[in-house]
Predict the structure.
Amino acid sequence: MKTPEEWMRDFEAKIADAQAKAAAVQEGLAQAGGSASSNDGTITVSVAPNGALTGLELTADALRKSHGQLSAEILEIARKAQRGAAVKVAETFAAVEGEGSETYRVITEYLPPPEEEEQPGAPAYAFNEEYEERAATAPAPPPARRPAPRPSSDEDEDFSDGSIFKNR
């Protein structure tokens, strides 16, 4: 059996470990934002670690594009930046908790899928009829997976009218 001093040393070590992990997560998340740019460098999108848009930079050349082309590129680049940020967040938790942890598993279940590699010579986007034709022939994306709900281990959720005392 542990002495009170041994128990206190173990407890303090656990607290120090938890504080170190919290600091590592905080530092990792502070640096986990992402950004991506178009191939021609005319559009740059920046996002926070949670994927929220934090910046959008357009050059004069970007504004010469049609509104459909510009909006399609912005969305594509934003998705790339969001995936980059999500990967950095997952890497932060992998470094702290390990890739086998429950936290890491939950985070990686919701990672956006990687963008498909562009085929050389294929246009990056299409307009009107071409877009509709591509959408009709493109395979449907797989449905999003949600984690199975965990059974509750909390015994305080009994809202029945029954007595807690056994009838004898």
